[in-house]
Write a structure and sequence with these properties.
Blueprint: E1 6-8, E2 14-16, E3 20-21, H1 29-41, E4 45-47, H2 55-65, E5 73-78, H3 85-99, E6 104-109, H4 117-129, E7 133-139, H5 143-152, E8 159-163, H6 171-180, E9 183-187, H7 199-208, H8 212-222, E10 226-227, H9 234-241, H10 250-257
Parallel strand pairs: 3-4, 4-5, 5-6, 6-7, 7-8, 8-9, 9-10
Antiparallel strand pairs: 1-2
Helix pairs in contact: 1-2, 2-3, 3-4, 7-8
Organism: Halobacillus shinanisalinarum
Protein name: Aldo/keto reductase
Keywords: NADP, Oxidoreductase
Protein backbone atom coordinates (compact mmCIF):
# COMPACT_ATOMS: atom_id res chain seq x y z
CA UNK A 1 0.00 0.00 0.00
CA UNK A 2 0.99 3.63 -0.49
CA UNK A 3 -0.44 7.16 -0.38
CA UNK A 4 -2.04 6.59 -3.75
CA UNK A 5 -3.91 3.47 -2.63
CA UNK A 6 -7.66 3.87 -2.75
CA UNK A 7 -10.91 2.49 -1.45
CA UNK A 8 -13.79 2.18 -3.92
CA UNK A 9 -16.97 3.97 -2.86
CA UNK A 10 -20.41 2.44 -3.42
CA UNK A 11 -20.75 4.27 -6.77
CA UNK A 12 -17.34 3.12 -8.04
CA UNK A 13 -15.44 6.35 -7.31
CA UNK A 14 -11.89 5.81 -6.01
CA UNK A 15 -10.98 7.64 -2.78
CA UNK A 16 -7.42 7.62 -1.36
CA UNK A 17 -7.19 6.01 2.09
CA UNK A 18 -5.02 8.80 3.48
CA UNK A 19 -5.52 12.54 2.97
CA UNK A 20 -4.55 15.90 4.40
CA UNK A 21 -7.04 17.71 6.63
CA UNK A 22 -6.67 21.53 6.76
CA UNK A 23 -8.93 22.50 9.67
CA UNK A 24 -7.73 25.65 11.50
CA UNK A 25 -5.04 26.39 8.92
CA UNK A 26 -4.91 30.08 7.96
CA UNK A 27 -6.05 30.78 4.43
CA UNK A 28 -2.80 32.50 3.45
CA UNK A 29 0.70 31.11 3.39
CA UNK A 30 0.07 28.49 6.09
CA UNK A 31 -2.46 26.45 4.13
CA UNK A 32 -0.75 27.09 0.77
CA UNK A 33 2.56 25.79 2.12
CA UNK A 34 0.94 22.84 3.91
CA UNK A 35 -0.93 21.69 0.80
CA UNK A 36 2.13 22.27 -1.38
CA UNK A 37 4.37 20.13 0.84
CA UNK A 38 1.73 17.38 1.12
CA UNK A 39 1.35 17.24 -2.66
CA UNK A 40 5.14 17.11 -3.00
CA UNK A 41 5.17 14.10 -0.67
CA UNK A 42 2.62 12.29 -2.80
CA UNK A 43 -0.67 13.12 -1.05
CA UNK A 44 -3.50 13.36 -3.56
CA UNK A 45 -6.48 13.67 -1.18
CA UNK A 46 -7.28 17.09 0.34
CA UNK A 47 -10.10 17.80 2.79
CA UNK A 48 -11.40 21.32 3.47
CA UNK A 49 -14.75 23.00 4.24
CA UNK A 50 -16.38 26.38 3.69
CA UNK A 51 -16.30 26.84 7.49
CA UNK A 52 -12.49 26.54 7.50
CA UNK A 53 -12.30 29.73 5.43
CA UNK A 54 -9.22 28.48 3.57
CA UNK A 55 -10.64 27.05 0.33
CA UNK A 56 -8.92 29.81 -1.68
CA UNK A 57 -5.53 28.90 -0.23
CA UNK A 58 -6.11 25.22 -0.97
CA UNK A 59 -7.12 26.18 -4.52
CA UNK A 60 -4.01 28.32 -4.96
CA UNK A 61 -1.73 25.45 -3.89
CA UNK A 62 -3.53 23.04 -6.23
CA UNK A 63 -3.16 25.43 -9.16
CA UNK A 64 0.52 26.10 -8.45
CA UNK A 65 1.27 22.38 -8.11
CA UNK A 66 0.54 21.71 -11.77
CA UNK A 67 -0.80 18.26 -10.83
CA UNK A 68 -3.55 17.19 -13.27
CA UNK A 69 -6.99 17.70 -11.74
CA UNK A 70 -8.02 14.08 -12.31
CA UNK A 71 -5.17 12.89 -10.09
CA UNK A 72 -6.54 14.78 -7.09
CA UNK A 73 -9.39 13.94 -4.72
CA UNK A 74 -10.85 17.18 -3.29
CA UNK A 75 -13.48 17.31 -0.55
CA UNK A 76 -15.30 20.30 0.88
CA UNK A 77 -18.40 20.69 3.04
CA UNK A 78 -21.53 22.82 3.29
CA UNK A 79 -21.68 24.70 6.61
CA UNK A 80 -24.64 24.85 8.99
CA UNK A 81 -25.89 28.34 8.06
CA UNK A 82 -25.63 27.45 4.34
CA UNK A 83 -28.01 24.50 4.63
CA UNK A 84 -31.35 24.29 2.81
CA UNK A 85 -31.94 23.48 -0.88
CA UNK A 86 -31.22 26.76 -2.70
CA UNK A 87 -28.69 27.88 -0.09
CA UNK A 88 -26.67 24.69 -0.56
CA UNK A 89 -26.58 25.05 -4.35
CA UNK A 90 -25.26 28.58 -3.89
CA UNK A 91 -22.76 27.46 -1.23
CA UNK A 92 -21.46 24.78 -3.58
CA UNK A 93 -20.83 27.33 -6.33
CA UNK A 94 -18.97 29.58 -3.88
CA UNK A 95 -16.77 26.73 -2.71
CA UNK A 96 -16.05 25.52 -6.23
CA UNK A 97 -15.10 29.02 -7.30
CA UNK A 98 -12.78 29.54 -4.33
CA UNK A 99 -11.10 26.20 -4.98
CA UNK A 100 -10.78 27.04 -8.66
CA UNK A 101 -12.04 23.66 -9.87
CA UNK A 102 -14.72 22.58 -12.35
CA UNK A 103 -16.00 19.79 -10.14
CA UNK A 104 -15.55 18.34 -6.65
CA UNK A 105 -14.73 14.74 -5.84
CA UNK A 106 -16.73 14.72 -2.60
CA UNK A 107 -19.21 17.17 -1.11
CA UNK A 108 -20.41 16.65 2.46
CA UNK A 109 -23.09 18.04 4.78
CA UNK A 110 -20.90 19.27 7.63
CA UNK A 111 -23.37 18.66 10.52
CA UNK A 112 -26.89 17.19 10.80
CA UNK A 113 -28.89 20.39 11.36
CA UNK A 114 -32.41 19.31 12.36
CA UNK A 115 -35.11 20.39 9.94
CA UNK A 116 -32.58 21.34 7.25
CA UNK A 117 -30.39 18.40 6.37
CA UNK A 118 -33.00 16.66 4.21
CA UNK A 119 -33.39 19.70 1.93
CA UNK A 120 -29.62 20.03 1.92
CA UNK A 121 -29.33 16.40 0.86
CA UNK A 122 -31.77 16.98 -2.02
CA UNK A 123 -29.41 19.73 -3.23
CA UNK A 124 -26.43 17.34 -2.99
CA UNK A 125 -28.38 14.75 -5.00
CA UNK A 126 -29.00 17.38 -7.71
CA UNK A 127 -25.31 18.37 -7.79
CA UNK A 128 -24.41 14.70 -8.12
CA UNK A 129 -26.94 14.04 -10.90
CA UNK A 130 -25.71 17.17 -12.71
CA UNK A 131 -22.14 15.81 -12.64
CA UNK A 132 -20.77 18.67 -10.56
CA UNK A 133 -19.56 16.33 -7.84
CA UNK A 134 -18.31 12.75 -8.16
CA UNK A 135 -19.57 11.57 -4.75
CA UNK A 136 -21.77 12.96 -1.97
CA UNK A 137 -21.90 12.23 1.72
CA UNK A 138 -22.35 13.48 5.23
CA UNK A 139 -20.22 14.38 8.21
CA UNK A 140 -20.93 13.90 11.91
CA UNK A 141 -24.12 11.92 11.28
CA UNK A 142 -25.07 9.37 13.92
CA UNK A 143 -26.96 6.21 12.99
CA UNK A 144 -30.35 7.77 13.80
CA UNK A 145 -29.60 10.73 11.49
CA UNK A 146 -28.66 8.30 8.71
CA UNK A 147 -31.81 6.24 9.30
CA UNK A 148 -33.86 9.43 9.01
CA UNK A 149 -32.04 10.62 5.89
CA UNK A 150 -32.35 7.25 4.15
CA UNK A 151 -36.17 7.31 4.54
CA UNK A 152 -36.37 10.02 1.87
CA UNK A 153 -33.04 9.91 0.07
CA UNK A 154 -32.93 8.87 -3.59
CA UNK A 155 -29.18 8.37 -3.34
CA UNK A 156 -27.46 6.86 -0.34
CA UNK A 157 -24.53 8.83 1.15
CA UNK A 158 -21.24 7.37 -0.04
CA UNK A 159 -19.20 8.65 2.91
CA UNK A 160 -19.75 9.55 6.57
CA UNK A 161 -16.88 11.60 8.00
CA UNK A 162 -16.93 11.47 11.80
CA UNK A 163 -14.75 12.23 14.79
CA UNK A 164 -12.98 8.93 15.33
CA UNK A 165 -9.89 8.03 17.33
CA UNK A 166 -9.08 5.36 19.95
CA UNK A 167 -10.89 7.25 22.76
CA UNK A 168 -13.93 7.63 20.49
CA UNK A 169 -14.13 4.32 18.66
CA UNK A 170 -17.64 4.48 17.28
CA UNK A 171 -18.08 0.75 16.73
CA UNK A 172 -21.86 0.87 16.29
CA UNK A 173 -21.46 3.62 13.67
CA UNK A 174 -18.70 1.73 11.84
CA UNK A 175 -20.77 -1.48 11.76
CA UNK A 176 -23.87 0.39 10.58
CA UNK A 177 -21.97 2.12 7.76
CA UNK A 178 -20.37 -1.14 6.65
CA UNK A 179 -23.82 -2.74 6.41
CA UNK A 180 -25.07 0.23 4.37
CA UNK A 181 -21.93 0.37 2.17
CA UNK A 182 -21.12 3.88 3.42
CA UNK A 183 -17.38 4.57 3.70
CA UNK A 184 -16.36 5.83 7.16
CA UNK A 185 -13.75 8.60 7.25
CA UNK A 186 -12.04 9.80 10.45
CA UNK A 187 -11.55 13.43 11.32
CA UNK A 188 -9.21 14.27 14.18
CA UNK A 189 -7.83 10.72 13.89
CA UNK A 190 -4.94 11.38 16.26
CA UNK A 191 -7.27 12.89 18.89
CA UNK A 192 -5.43 16.22 18.63
CA UNK A 193 -2.41 14.49 20.15
CA UNK A 194 -4.09 14.45 23.56
CA UNK A 195 -3.17 10.92 24.58
CA UNK A 196 -0.16 9.87 22.55
CA UNK A 197 1.53 8.99 25.85
CA UNK A 198 -0.97 6.17 26.44
CA UNK A 199 1.02 3.05 27.50
CA UNK A 200 -0.68 0.78 24.93
CA UNK A 201 0.23 3.14 22.09
CA UNK A 202 3.72 3.73 23.48
CA UNK A 203 4.38 0.00 23.72
CA UNK A 204 3.20 -0.69 20.16
CA UNK A 205 5.18 2.28 18.86
CA UNK A 206 8.32 0.85 20.41
CA UNK A 207 7.63 -2.62 19.07
CA UNK A 208 7.18 -1.43 15.47
CA UNK A 209 9.70 1.41 15.62
CA UNK A 210 6.92 3.86 14.81
CA UNK A 211 5.33 6.82 16.60
CA UNK A 212 2.08 6.52 18.60
CA UNK A 213 0.41 8.67 15.92
CA UNK A 214 1.46 6.21 13.21
CA UNK A 215 0.06 3.34 15.29
CA UNK A 216 -3.33 5.11 15.48
CA UNK A 217 -3.42 5.86 11.75
CA UNK A 218 -2.52 2.26 10.96
CA UNK A 219 -5.36 1.16 13.28
CA UNK A 220 -7.74 3.30 11.18
CA UNK A 221 -6.60 1.65 7.96
CA UNK A 222 -6.99 -1.84 9.38
CA UNK A 223 -10.57 -0.98 10.29
CA UNK A 224 -11.18 0.06 6.68
CA UNK A 225 -11.43 3.73 7.65
CA UNK A 226 -10.21 6.60 5.48
CA UNK A 227 -8.07 8.94 7.59
CA UNK A 228 -7.20 12.64 7.13
CA UNK A 229 -4.62 13.74 9.70
CA UNK A 230 -3.92 17.46 9.77
CA UNK A 231 -0.39 18.80 9.79
CA UNK A 232 1.29 21.97 8.54
CA UNK A 233 4.80 20.50 8.89
CA UNK A 234 6.36 18.50 6.07
CA UNK A 235 8.18 16.15 8.48
CA UNK A 236 4.91 15.33 10.26
CA UNK A 237 3.07 14.92 6.97
CA UNK A 238 5.77 12.45 5.94
CA UNK A 239 5.38 10.61 9.25
CA UNK A 240 1.60 10.47 8.82
CA UNK A 241 2.07 8.90 5.40
CA UNK A 242 4.60 6.30 6.53
CA UNK A 243 2.02 3.66 7.43
CA UNK A 244 2.39 0.99 4.82
CA UNK A 245 5.41 -1.06 5.90
CA UNK A 246 3.89 -2.68 8.99
CA UNK A 247 0.67 -4.32 10.14
CA UNK A 248 -0.89 -4.62 13.59
CA UNK A 249 -2.08 -8.06 14.72
CA UNK A 250 -5.78 -8.65 15.43
CA UNK A 251 -4.94 -8.76 19.12
CA UNK A 252 -3.17 -5.39 18.95
CA UNK A 253 -6.10 -3.85 17.07
CA UNK A 254 -8.39 -5.12 19.85
CA UNK A 255 -6.11 -3.56 22.49
CA UNK A 256 -6.46 -0.17 20.80
CA UNK A 257 -10.25 -0.69 20.46
CA UNK A 258 -10.22 -1.13 24.24
CA UNK A 259 -9.01 2.46 24.77
CA UNK A 260 -12.48 3.76 23.90
CA UNK A 261 -14.01 6.12 26.48
CA UNK A 262 -16.68 7.68 24.21
CA UNK A 263 -14.63 10.82 24.71
CA UNK A 264 -15.51 13.54 22.18
CA UNK A 265 -13.18 16.44 21.44
CA UNK A 266 -15.73 18.14 19.19
CA UNK A 267 -19.43 18.84 19.76
CA UNK A 268 -22.00 16.06 20.06
CA UNK A 269 -23.92 15.85 16.75
CA UNK A 270 -27.27 15.99 18.58
CA UNK A 271 -26.29 19.25 20.29
CA UNK A 272 -25.05 21.20 17.29
CA UNK A 273 -27.21 23.99 15.91
CA UNK A 274 -29.50 24.07 18.93
Amino acid sequence: MSLTDVTTLSNGVKMPWVGLGVYKMDSGEEVVNAVRSALDLGYRHLDTASFYDNEEGVGQAIKESGIPREELFITTKVWNDEQGYEETLEAFDRSREKLGVDYLDLYLIHWPIQGRYKDTWKALEKLYKDGKVKAIGVSNFLTHHLDDLLKDAEIKPMVNQVELHPELYQKEMIDYCKQQDIQVEAWSPIGRGNYLDNPVLQELAEEYNKTPAQIILRWDLQHGIVTIPKSTHKERQQENADLFDFELTDNEVEKINGLNKNNRLGPHPDEIGK
